[in-house]
Amino acid sequence: MIRQAIIPLAGLGTRLLPLTSVFPKELLPINGKPGIEYILDECLDSGIKEIIFIISKKKEMIRKYFYNDKLFKDVIKKKNDKRIIHEYKKILRYRKFVKFVYQNEPKGTGDAVLKTKNYIKDKYFLMLLPDDLITNINCSKEMIKISKNKNSSVIASMKVKKKDVTRWGILSKKKKINKNNFFINNIIEKPSVNEAPSNYAVIGRYILSKDIFKILKYQKKGKGGEIHITDAIKNLINKDKKFIAHVFKGKYLDCGSMSGFIKSGIEIFKS
Ligand code: UTP
What are phi and psi of 203, to 5 degrees? Predict the structure, then answer.
């Protein structure tokens, strides 16, 4: 059973400046709904019972978003507006599942994951990066099924154009399982076109085993001086741990860059 999900939210969001200079990007609306709510809906729809947000003091606004009862109660008392009542109930529901841990210095995604070490109960847990939205399918749900079936860690993947591999973490195929799933034996962060072992890119959905914490404890800084989760995954694979890449069928939307963020809203509006 995979019952817990973690969501790293402690990054600076520099690619979305100036929108993120005072406001967390995860609360920015994508077609009228805060980005983080799409991620929460994906988790809840895939049967997740506890969601751990990794935030920082600077992103305290995310916690407040779920605890602004007085405002809602006062407005509902005055207006009795159905839409606002519905929105408030939705927030109250989310709140039952969400827990917060802190990473006050953004030392990288690997360091963010390490902050959840004492909270993870089962062998496997789900991690979602909120910049990556996947629509038309519940990618997490599919990955949970695969993990259960194969007793393995799973990483989401998407085929990209050969010339674009330099922007992504690229997977190296070890053995095909079926049309949409294969075992991997390496991940190379932003390789050159010649270095890239495939054109399958890593997308922000992961089912990780608790073993990752043992690696993260000693994981050294990588590119850009940050501790990357992909480097820790690479080390786990080197220790002969199984990792499956799942090529999802849904549509990928990149909400972390300015052009991607703008396009995501339009895509969701059209769908
Ligand atoms: P990114 O590095 O892609 O995003 O992290 P960022 O740092 O928020 O934004 P840019 O690159 O400056 O524009 C991927 C995810 O990991 C989280 C981020 O919040 C984001 O959701 N993260 C990143 C952490 O929680 N802690 C970190 O130290 C770094």
Answer: -115, 155
Q: Which of 129, 189, 226, 259 to mutate to test the pocket of ligand 1 (most atoms within 8 A of CB)?
A: 129
- Distance of CA 192 to CAs 108, 157, 233, 257, Å? 22, 18, 20, 21
Distance CA 160, CA 158 (A): 6
Q: Say how far apart CA 124 and CA 94 lie, in whole Å.
A: 22
pTM (whole model) above 0.90: yes
**Alpha carbon nearest to ligand 1 atom 21, residue:** 9
- Cα separation of 211 and 233, whole Å? 10
Q: Check: CB of residue 244 under 8 Å from CB of residue 183.
A: yes
Q: How many C-beta atoms surround the C-beta of residue 187 within 10 A?
A: 25
Q: What ranges in 66-158 are assigned the alpha helix state H?
A: 69-79, 82-97, 109-114, 139-150
CA torsion through residues 181, 114, 151, 5, sign? negative
CA nearest 10: which of 23, 20, 24, 22? 24
Within 8 A by CB and 6+ apart from 71, the residues are: none
For the CA of 7, the nearest atom of ligand 1? 21
| Burial annotation 222-247 (CB, 10 A radius, 16+ → b, else e) | beeebbbbbbbbbbbbeeeebbbbbe
Ligand 1 centroid vs 109 CA: distance in angstroms? 7
Nearest alpha carbon, ligand 1 atom 18:
11
In short, whether 103's Cβ falls inside 6 Å of ligand 1 is: yes
**pLDDT tens digits along 122-176:** 999 999 999 999 999 999 999 999 999 999 999 999 999 999 999 999 999 999 9
Q: Is the pLDDT of residue 3 over 80?
A: yes
